[in-house]
Write a structure and sequence with these properties.
mainly beta; 6-stranded mixed β-sheet; 4-stranded antiparallel β-sheet; about 30% strand
Protein backbone atom coordinates (compact mmCIF):
# COMPACT_ATOMS: atom_id res chain seq x y z
CA UNK A 1 0.00 0.00 0.00
CA UNK A 2 1.07 3.62 -0.39
CA UNK A 3 2.04 4.99 3.01
CA UNK A 4 1.39 8.39 4.62
CA UNK A 5 4.39 10.69 4.43
CA UNK A 6 4.59 10.85 8.20
CA UNK A 7 5.28 7.11 8.27
CA UNK A 8 8.01 7.00 5.65
CA UNK A 9 10.94 8.21 7.74
CA UNK A 10 13.84 5.81 8.20
CA UNK A 11 14.35 3.73 11.30
CA UNK A 12 17.39 2.05 12.73
CA UNK A 13 18.22 -1.19 14.46
CA UNK A 14 17.41 -2.30 17.96
CA UNK A 15 18.16 -4.96 20.47
CA UNK A 16 15.89 -7.42 22.14
CA UNK A 17 15.69 -9.92 24.92
CA UNK A 18 12.92 -11.95 23.29
CA UNK A 19 14.33 -15.31 22.26
CA UNK A 20 17.84 -14.34 23.41
CA UNK A 21 20.41 -17.17 23.49
CA UNK A 22 21.20 -18.58 26.92
CA UNK A 23 23.90 -16.66 28.72
CA UNK A 24 23.69 -13.59 26.52
CA UNK A 25 22.86 -10.20 27.99
CA UNK A 26 21.20 -7.87 25.48
CA UNK A 27 22.98 -4.59 24.89
CA UNK A 28 19.74 -2.84 25.74
CA UNK A 29 16.85 -4.50 27.52
CA UNK A 30 14.09 -1.96 28.18
CA UNK A 31 11.44 -4.68 27.96
CA UNK A 32 12.85 -7.79 29.54
CA UNK A 33 9.41 -8.55 30.97
CA UNK A 34 8.08 -8.99 27.44
CA UNK A 35 9.94 -12.28 26.97
CA UNK A 36 7.40 -15.08 27.03
CA UNK A 37 8.03 -18.32 28.91
CA UNK A 38 7.96 -21.24 26.42
CA UNK A 39 4.86 -23.37 26.79
CA UNK A 40 5.15 -27.11 27.39
CA UNK A 41 5.34 -29.06 24.15
CA UNK A 42 1.75 -30.08 23.32
CA UNK A 43 0.65 -33.60 22.60
CA UNK A 44 -0.94 -33.77 19.13
CA UNK A 45 -4.43 -35.18 18.89
CA UNK A 46 -3.79 -36.70 15.45
CA UNK A 47 -0.75 -37.99 13.58
CA UNK A 48 1.52 -35.18 12.43
CA UNK A 49 3.87 -35.39 9.46
CA UNK A 50 7.55 -34.64 9.92
CA UNK A 51 8.53 -31.19 8.60
CA UNK A 52 10.81 -31.05 5.58
CA UNK A 53 12.74 -28.06 4.32
CA UNK A 54 10.15 -27.35 1.63
CA UNK A 55 7.45 -26.90 4.32
CA UNK A 56 9.32 -24.20 6.21
CA UNK A 57 10.28 -20.56 6.10
CA UNK A 58 12.59 -18.70 8.48
CA UNK A 59 13.51 -15.14 9.45
CA UNK A 60 16.48 -14.12 11.59
CA UNK A 61 16.65 -11.25 14.08
CA UNK A 62 16.28 -10.41 17.79
CA UNK A 63 19.99 -9.79 18.30
CA UNK A 64 21.72 -10.14 21.66
CA UNK A 65 25.28 -9.59 22.83
CA UNK A 66 27.47 -10.33 25.84
CA UNK A 67 30.89 -9.44 27.15
CA UNK A 68 33.82 -11.18 25.49
CA UNK A 69 32.54 -10.58 21.98
CA UNK A 70 29.78 -13.20 22.11
CA UNK A 71 26.76 -12.37 19.98
CA UNK A 72 23.59 -14.15 18.99
CA UNK A 73 20.23 -13.94 17.31
CA UNK A 74 16.99 -15.88 17.05
CA UNK A 75 15.68 -17.72 14.02
CA UNK A 76 11.89 -17.99 13.84
CA UNK A 77 10.58 -20.94 11.82
CA UNK A 78 7.06 -21.31 10.45
CA UNK A 79 5.23 -23.83 8.28
CA UNK A 80 3.54 -22.53 5.13
CA UNK A 81 2.39 -25.94 3.89
CA UNK A 82 -1.27 -26.97 3.98
CA UNK A 83 -0.93 -29.34 6.95
CA UNK A 84 0.65 -29.26 10.41
CA UNK A 85 4.09 -30.83 10.78
CA UNK A 86 6.50 -31.83 13.54
CA UNK A 87 10.05 -30.45 13.57
CA UNK A 88 12.28 -32.58 15.78
CA UNK A 89 15.92 -33.55 16.17
CA UNK A 90 18.88 -31.28 15.46
CA UNK A 91 19.42 -28.62 12.82
CA UNK A 92 22.64 -27.95 10.91
CA UNK A 93 23.73 -24.53 9.65
CA UNK A 94 25.51 -23.31 6.51
CA UNK A 95 26.56 -19.67 6.32
CA UNK A 96 25.96 -17.92 3.00
CA UNK A 97 26.72 -14.62 1.33
CA UNK A 98 23.87 -12.23 0.56
CA UNK A 99 23.79 -13.70 -2.97
CA UNK A 100 23.62 -17.30 -1.72
CA UNK A 101 27.27 -18.31 -2.06
CA UNK A 102 28.70 -20.72 0.51
CA UNK A 103 30.96 -19.45 3.30
CA UNK A 104 33.28 -21.48 5.51
CA UNK A 105 31.13 -22.82 8.35
CA UNK A 106 32.10 -24.72 11.47
CA UNK A 107 29.65 -25.84 14.14
CA UNK A 108 30.91 -25.54 17.70
CA UNK A 109 30.05 -28.41 20.02
CA UNK A 110 27.23 -30.94 19.86
CA UNK A 111 23.96 -29.54 18.54
CA UNK A 112 21.16 -30.12 21.09
CA UNK A 113 18.00 -31.90 19.98
CA UNK A 114 14.62 -30.24 20.25
CA UNK A 115 11.01 -30.59 19.19
CA UNK A 116 8.15 -28.37 18.02
CA UNK A 117 4.80 -28.73 16.26
CA UNK A 118 4.09 -26.17 13.56
CA UNK A 119 0.61 -25.16 12.46
CA UNK A 120 -0.01 -24.71 8.69
CA UNK A 121 -0.37 -21.58 6.54
CA UNK A 122 2.12 -19.48 8.50
CA UNK A 123 4.89 -17.08 7.51
CA UNK A 124 7.60 -16.26 10.06
CA UNK A 125 6.93 -12.54 10.48
CA UNK A 126 8.90 -11.22 13.42
CA UNK A 127 11.58 -13.04 15.46
CA UNK A 128 11.04 -10.52 18.27
CA UNK A 129 7.45 -11.77 18.67
CA UNK A 130 7.20 -15.54 18.02
CA UNK A 131 3.67 -16.95 17.97
CA UNK A 132 2.12 -20.21 19.14
CA UNK A 133 2.47 -22.87 16.49
CA UNK A 134 5.92 -21.63 15.42
CA UNK A 135 9.44 -22.62 16.51
CA UNK A 136 12.60 -20.78 17.48
CA UNK A 137 16.29 -21.66 17.34
CA UNK A 138 19.19 -19.55 18.61
CA UNK A 139 22.45 -19.09 16.71
CA UNK A 140 25.50 -17.73 18.56
CA UNK A 141 29.07 -16.80 17.61
CA UNK A 142 32.16 -14.90 18.74
CA UNK A 143 33.49 -11.78 17.04
CA UNK A 144 37.13 -12.65 17.84
CA UNK A 145 39.47 -15.40 18.97
CA UNK A 146 42.23 -13.11 20.31
CA UNK A 147 40.06 -10.52 22.01
CA UNK A 148 36.55 -9.21 21.35
CA UNK A 149 36.33 -8.03 17.76
CA UNK A 150 39.85 -9.25 16.87
CA UNK A 151 39.91 -12.44 14.80
CA UNK A 152 43.23 -13.99 13.78
CA UNK A 153 41.55 -15.69 10.85
CA UNK A 154 38.59 -14.77 8.67
CA UNK A 155 35.38 -13.22 10.01
CA UNK A 156 33.04 -13.49 7.01
CA UNK A 157 30.18 -11.09 6.56
CA UNK A 158 27.14 -13.38 6.49
CA UNK A 159 24.10 -12.47 4.41
CA UNK A 160 21.93 -15.58 4.87
CA UNK A 161 21.84 -18.78 6.90
CA UNK A 162 20.66 -22.13 5.53
CA UNK A 163 19.31 -24.62 8.08
CA UNK A 164 19.32 -28.32 7.17
CA UNK A 165 16.23 -30.12 8.48
CA UNK A 166 16.53 -33.64 10.00
CA UNK A 167 13.81 -35.13 7.79
CA UNK A 168 15.29 -33.74 4.58
CA UNK A 169 15.83 -30.50 2.75
CA UNK A 170 16.81 -27.09 4.05
CA UNK A 171 15.33 -23.66 4.63
CA UNK A 172 17.22 -20.41 4.04
CA UNK A 173 16.56 -17.02 5.57
CA UNK A 174 18.13 -13.59 5.28
CA UNK A 175 18.67 -11.17 8.14
CA UNK A 176 16.16 -8.46 8.86
CA UNK A 177 17.99 -5.61 7.09
CA UNK A 178 15.26 -3.16 8.13
CA UNK A 179 16.69 -3.34 11.64
CA UNK A 180 20.35 -3.55 10.55
CA UNK A 181 20.90 -7.11 11.78
CA UNK A 182 24.42 -8.34 10.94
CA UNK A 183 26.62 -11.38 11.55
CA UNK A 184 30.40 -11.84 11.23
CA UNK A 185 31.55 -14.95 13.18
CA UNK A 186 35.27 -15.40 13.71
CA UNK A 187 36.52 -18.24 11.48
CA UNK A 188 32.91 -18.99 10.55
CA UNK A 189 32.32 -20.78 13.86
CA UNK A 190 28.71 -20.80 15.07
CA UNK A 191 26.63 -22.76 17.54
CA UNK A 192 22.95 -23.67 17.24
CA UNK A 193 20.52 -24.06 20.13
CA UNK A 194 17.73 -26.59 20.35
CA UNK A 195 14.50 -26.39 18.37
CA UNK A 196 12.07 -24.76 20.82
CA UNK A 197 8.27 -24.52 20.73
CA UNK A 198 7.13 -20.90 20.65
CA UNK A 199 4.28 -19.74 22.88
CA UNK A 200 1.91 -16.78 22.82
CA UNK A 201 3.66 -13.47 23.52
CA UNK A 202 3.05 -11.45 26.66
CA UNK A 203 -0.50 -10.19 27.21
CA UNK A 204 -1.24 -6.48 27.62
CA UNK A 205 -4.29 -4.68 29.00
CA UNK A 206 -4.66 -2.38 25.97
CA UNK A 207 -3.40 -2.25 22.37
CA UNK A 208 -1.44 0.94 23.03
CA UNK A 209 0.33 -0.64 26.01
CA UNK A 210 1.45 -3.53 23.82
CA UNK A 211 2.53 -1.19 21.03
CA UNK A 212 4.63 0.88 23.43
CA UNK A 213 6.56 -2.21 24.54
CA UNK A 214 6.90 -3.53 20.99
CA UNK A 215 8.32 -0.27 19.70
CA UNK A 216 10.82 -0.03 22.54
CA UNK A 217 11.77 -3.69 22.01
CA UNK A 218 12.60 -3.32 18.35
CA UNK A 219 13.41 0.31 17.60
CA UNK A 220 14.66 2.09 20.71
CA UNK A 221 18.12 0.52 20.98
CA UNK A 222 19.80 3.33 19.01
CA UNK A 223 17.45 6.14 19.97
CA UNK A 224 15.41 5.97 16.77
CA UNK A 225 12.30 4.55 18.39
CA UNK A 226 9.34 6.28 20.04
CA UNK A 227 9.90 8.38 23.12
CA UNK A 228 9.15 7.12 26.61
CA UNK A 229 5.60 8.49 26.45
CA UNK A 230 4.63 8.32 22.76
CA UNK A 231 1.27 9.39 21.39
CA UNK A 232 -0.25 6.29 19.84
CA UNK A 233 -3.45 6.03 17.80
CA UNK A 234 -5.27 2.70 17.79
CA UNK A 235 -7.57 1.43 15.04
CA UNK A 236 -9.43 -1.44 16.64
CA UNK A 237 -11.22 -4.07 14.58
CA UNK A 238 -12.75 -7.37 15.68
CA UNK A 239 -10.46 -8.78 18.40
CA UNK A 240 -7.53 -7.15 16.57
CA UNK A 241 -5.96 -3.73 16.33
CA UNK A 242 -3.42 -1.66 14.44
CA UNK A 243 -1.59 0.96 16.49
CA UNK A 244 0.27 3.70 14.62
CA UNK A 245 2.96 6.02 15.90
CA UNK A 246 4.08 8.99 13.79
CA UNK A 247 7.44 9.73 15.36
CA UNK A 248 10.20 12.05 14.15
CA UNK A 249 12.52 9.16 13.30
CA UNK A 250 10.37 6.07 12.87
CA UNK A 251 6.73 5.81 11.87
CA UNK A 252 5.54 2.42 13.13
CA UNK A 253 2.61 0.07 12.69
CA UNK A 254 2.03 -2.46 15.46
CA UNK A 255 -0.44 -5.32 14.95
CA UNK A 256 -2.12 -6.99 17.93
CA UNK A 257 -4.71 -9.70 18.52
CA UNK A 258 -6.87 -10.33 21.58
CA UNK A 259 -7.87 -13.41 23.55
CA UNK A 260 -9.08 -13.98 27.10
CA UNK A 261 -5.66 -13.07 28.53
CA UNK A 262 -5.49 -9.69 26.82
CA UNK A 263 -3.76 -8.12 23.79
CA UNK A 264 -0.77 -9.83 22.15
CA UNK A 265 1.70 -8.37 19.65
CA UNK A 266 1.82 -10.16 16.28
CA UNK A 267 4.26 -7.86 14.52
CA UNK A 268 5.59 -4.30 14.52
CA UNK A 269 7.34 -2.49 11.68
CA UNK A 270 8.75 0.82 10.66
CA UNK A 271 6.53 1.89 7.79
CA UNK A 272 9.18 2.07 5.08
CA UNK A 273 8.34 -0.53 2.46
CA UNK A 274 5.12 -0.62 0.38
CA UNK A 275 3.12 -3.76 1.09
CA UNK A 276 4.83 -4.39 4.41
CA UNK A 277 2.17 -2.91 6.63
CA UNK A 278 -1.44 -3.73 5.65
CA UNK A 279 -4.34 -1.49 6.63
CA UNK A 280 -7.71 -0.41 5.29
CA UNK A 281 -7.06 1.13 1.87
CA UNK A 282 -7.70 4.88 1.78
CA UNK A 283 -7.09 7.62 -0.75
CA UNK A 284 -5.83 5.36 -3.52
CA UNK A 285 -3.57 3.25 -1.28
CA UNK A 286 -3.23 -0.44 -2.05
CA UNK A 287 -1.57 -3.65 -0.85
CA UNK A 288 0.21 -6.62 -2.38
CA UNK A 289 0.38 -10.37 -1.77
CA UNK A 290 3.74 -12.04 -1.06
CA UNK A 291 4.90 -15.41 0.18
CA UNK A 292 8.02 -17.27 1.28
CA UNK A 293 8.10 -19.56 -1.76
CA UNK A 294 7.82 -18.83 -5.46
CA UNK A 295 5.87 -19.71 -7.44
CA UNK A 296 2.98 -20.00 -5.03
CA UNK A 297 -0.29 -18.43 -3.96
CA UNK A 298 -2.16 -17.46 -0.81
CA UNK A 299 -5.53 -19.06 -0.07
CA UNK A 300 -8.46 -16.66 0.08
CA UNK A 301 -11.33 -17.70 2.37
CA UNK A 302 -15.04 -16.95 2.44
CA UNK A 303 -14.78 -15.76 6.06
CA UNK A 304 -11.91 -14.95 8.45
CA UNK A 305 -11.21 -18.55 9.45
CA UNK A 306 -9.01 -21.39 8.18
CA UNK A 307 -12.05 -23.66 8.54
CA UNK A 308 -14.09 -21.60 6.05
CA UNK A 309 -14.35 -22.34 2.34
CA UNK A 310 -11.33 -21.51 0.17
CA UNK A 311 -12.70 -19.32 -2.64
CA UNK A 312 -9.48 -18.54 -4.48
CA UNK A 313 -5.71 -18.37 -4.41
CA UNK A 314 -3.85 -15.10 -5.09
CA UNK A 315 -0.41 -15.54 -6.73
CA UNK A 316 2.61 -14.36 -4.80
CA UNK A 317 4.11 -11.20 -6.21
CA UNK A 318 7.78 -10.57 -6.91
CA UNK A 319 9.89 -9.52 -3.92
CA UNK A 320 12.68 -8.11 -6.07
CA UNK A 321 13.07 -4.36 -6.38
CA UNK A 322 12.94 -4.61 -10.19
CA UNK A 323 9.76 -6.69 -10.25
CA UNK A 324 7.82 -4.99 -7.49
CA UNK A 325 6.15 -2.44 -9.79
CA UNK A 326 4.64 -5.27 -11.85
CA UNK A 327 2.82 -6.84 -8.90
CA UNK A 328 -0.97 -6.86 -8.71
CA UNK A 329 -2.40 -4.22 -6.35
CA UNK A 330 -5.33 -5.12 -4.10
CA UNK A 331 -7.70 -3.01 -2.01
CA UNK A 332 -8.29 -3.93 1.64
CA UNK A 333 -11.81 -2.94 2.68
CA UNK A 334 -12.31 -4.78 6.01
CA UNK A 335 -10.21 -5.72 9.02
CA UNK A 336 -8.29 -6.32 11.10
CA UNK A 337 -10.11 -9.37 12.45
CA UNK A 338 -8.81 -12.08 14.77
CA UNK A 339 -10.52 -15.46 14.90
CA UNK A 340 -9.50 -17.91 17.62
CA UNK A 341 -8.90 -21.36 16.12
CA UNK A 342 -7.15 -24.59 17.06
CA UNK A 343 -5.29 -26.72 14.54
CA UNK A 344 -6.86 -30.22 14.68
CA UNK A 345 -3.57 -32.05 14.07
CA UNK A 346 -1.21 -30.32 16.49
CA UNK A 347 -3.74 -29.02 19.03
CA UNK A 348 -2.01 -25.63 18.90
CA UNK A 349 -3.67 -22.22 18.51
CA UNK A 350 -3.97 -21.43 14.81
CA UNK A 351 -5.71 -18.07 15.08
CA UNK A 352 -4.19 -15.06 13.38
CA UNK A 353 -5.15 -11.65 12.01
CA UNK A 354 -7.24 -11.51 8.82
CA UNK A 355 -7.94 -8.78 6.24
CA UNK A 356 -10.64 -8.67 3.56
CA UNK A 357 -9.49 -8.12 -0.03
CA UNK A 358 -12.13 -6.27 -2.04
CA UNK A 359 -13.73 -8.57 -4.60
CA UNK A 360 -11.67 -11.56 -3.42
CA UNK A 361 -12.26 -12.66 0.18
CA UNK A 362 -10.38 -12.97 3.49
CA UNK A 363 -6.61 -13.38 3.63
CA UNK A 364 -4.31 -13.88 6.62
CA UNK A 365 -1.91 -11.08 7.55
CA UNK A 366 1.04 -13.43 6.93
CA UNK A 367 0.80 -13.00 3.17
CA UNK A 368 0.40 -9.23 3.22
CA UNK A 369 3.51 -8.23 5.14
CA UNK A 370 6.40 -10.09 3.54
CA UNK A 371 9.12 -7.47 3.24
CA UNK A 372 10.02 -6.09 -0.17
CA UNK A 373 13.76 -5.18 -0.33
Amino acid sequence: MLLPAALLSACGGGTSTSGSPSGLTPASSPTAAATATPAPTPTPTLAVNACTGSDLNVVFGAESSASGGEQGMTGLLANDSATACQLSGTLQAQLLTSSGGSLTTSLSGAEPAGNAWLVPDRVALDPWWPQSGEATVTITWHTGDVQPGVCSGSAPSVGEVSLSVPRGGSVTGAFDTLFEVSMAPCNGVVQLGAITQASAPQAFATPTAGAAVANQEEFAGDGSGPAANPAFAADTGSQAAVVTYNGPDCGAYTYLWKDGAGWHVLDTNCAQAPGYTPSISQGGSYDFVFGPTSPGCASVHSSPSHASTVVGCLPFGSTSASGFGENTPYTIDQGPTYTAETDPASGLPEGTIWWHIQGQGWLTQDYLVDLVP
